[in-house]
Amino acid sequence: MSEKKQQGPGIYHAPWEKTFERILTPFEDFIHRQTTSGMLLMGTAILALILANGPLAEHYAHILHNHITLGVGGWKLDMTIHHFVNDALMALFFFVVGLELKREILVGELANLRNAVLPIGAAIGGMVVPALIYYAINPEGGAARGWGVPMATDIAFAIGALALLASRVPKALITFLVALAIVDDLGAVMVIAVFYTETIATTPMIMVGLLFALMIAFNLMGFRKPTPYFLVAMLLWYALLLSGVHATLAGILCAFAIPATPKYKPELFSQHVKELMQRFDASHEPGKSIMTNDKLRAVVQTLENGVHSVEAPLQRLEHDWHLPVAYLVIPIFALTNAGIPLNLGTMGETITHPVFAGVTMGLILGKFIGIAGVSWLMLKLKIAQLPKDTSFSQIAGVSLLAGIGFTMSIFVAELGFVGEPEYLLMAKTGILGASVVAGITGFVWLYLVSKPNPE
Predict the structure, then answer these.
(1) Residue 135: which CATH number?
(2) Is the separation of the CB atoms in 333 and 90 below 8 Å?
């Protein structure tokens, strides 16, 4: 009984099992995972910096440039570990982003135009102004390709920082930041697809269209199992890889094809569960383990199948994949991309470099001006309204937190500065520096302007 404590007849709790009794809304579950993911992301980013600047720096770089080769017959796929993470694993990240986008558009904050106007407008301002600031500092040459870097907000870090203030800020403010960050992600995806694609191969793009149409057909024909979608999505990913468009967008396309309607209606599910529970009680034999009771195990399995059928596949896949993406894919991405060699002796040159200046000014100043400025203008013109129980000063604090660019900003920098190691180094250094400044200033601002909730 050292690991488990008996709570009552037939009920035992291991310490980690107590959360079973907590009923979280999908939004609360989402916030909890983003907060934990943000802390894990911070830890792996620090580890990457230690590896890149310590005695293991050479080994760290060597591992990232090792090749992964997959082949069947005459077909072969050869990628470095660094490219595999950015081109393959990150497709799973974009899949979850796509699911979140679709959910928000269908039933979330973005489904209600009255509620969606402010975060959509703020997100657009928070993308356009940083890009303009960067471009004003880097108007020409190879450095100009980095204009998309300061446009993105890291949803895990930003929500994680805001969630630490959950006892002082209204829930509607967190909802506002979630909606803003998701619109921001959509903008970043469009920028990647349109502006960071050099050449497009026609035949593979035709295949992409046909494969996406096939997934839509699966949806219309009522396919609810994820396996057919994933098999086609793998082929679609490879077609995108050959086409010249970034292959991670396969995740977005697959997510948009996933059905958003469940197999069972709630009324049918309720009736089904009541019938099953009657059979469960009738099959139960006191003192006998469920392992030896075939009838009882059959009822439990049928009940599990019913639970899956009353959930929309989109909802279930978002829940199932959020954990491995947030706790595995994103930390691996940070570990392989945040390892920036820092040289204190040249720090003066770094902070005056146009790319560094464009990224930091874009993320810190651009996000603040873009989000707070557009929000103020929309409120003054009565185009939008403040979220419930929030103040404009809190919106301004969120606009500072939105300057945490990390994951998506680094991803765009990797695309924009291919073959430009100096610019890439400056961009990544600027992203890290700006994210730290934005996170601290945003947190302190919101702490000062918010009072503890009465509850």
Answers:
(1) 1.20.1530.10
(2) yes
Mean pLDDT of 398-410: 91
User: What pLDDT is stored for residue 150 in this prediction?
Assistant: 95
Shared domain check, 286 and 362: no
pTM of structure: 0.77
Most trustworthy range by pLDDT among 13-17, 44-48, 147-151, 418-422: 147-151
pLDDT tens for each residue of 123-170: 999 999 999 999 999 999 999 999 999 998 887 778 778 877 878 888
The C-alpha torsion from 389 through 391 and 394 to 396, rounded to 10°, is 140
Partnered with residue 102 across adjacent β-strands are: none
Tokens of 369: 């001006």
Q: b/e for 335-362, b at 16 or more Cβ within 10 A?
A: bbbbbbeeeeeeeeebeebbbbbbbbbb
What does 326-342 look like in DSSP terms, one character per residue?
A: IIIIHHHHHHHH-----
**Residue 180 domain-assigned (yes or no):** yes
3-state SS, residue 67? strand
Amino acid at 236: L
Exposed / middle / buried, residue 137 (Cβ in 10 Å: 0-12, 13-18, 19+) = buried
Please indicate, yes or no, if residue 214 is contained in any of the structural domains.
Answer: no
The number of domains in the chain is 2
Tell me the residue type at 210: L
Question: Are 302 and 332 in a shared domain?
Answer: no
Give the DSSP per-residue string, 96-110.
Answer: HHHHHHHHHHHTSGG
Mean per-residue pLDDT, 30-40: 68
pLDDT above 60: residue 20 = no
Residue 435: inside a domain, yes or no? yes
Q: Which has the closest alpha carbon to 395: 5, 87, 126?
A: 126
* Interstrand relation of 5-8 and 11-13 (parallel, antiparallel or unpaired): antiparallel
Query: What letters, b where the CB count within 10 A reaches 16 and e where it falls short, cover 248-266?
Result: bbbbbbbbbbbbbebbbee
Query: What residue numbers bound the domain in which 298 lies?
Result: 266-309
* In contact, 118 and 387? CB cutoff 8 Å: yes
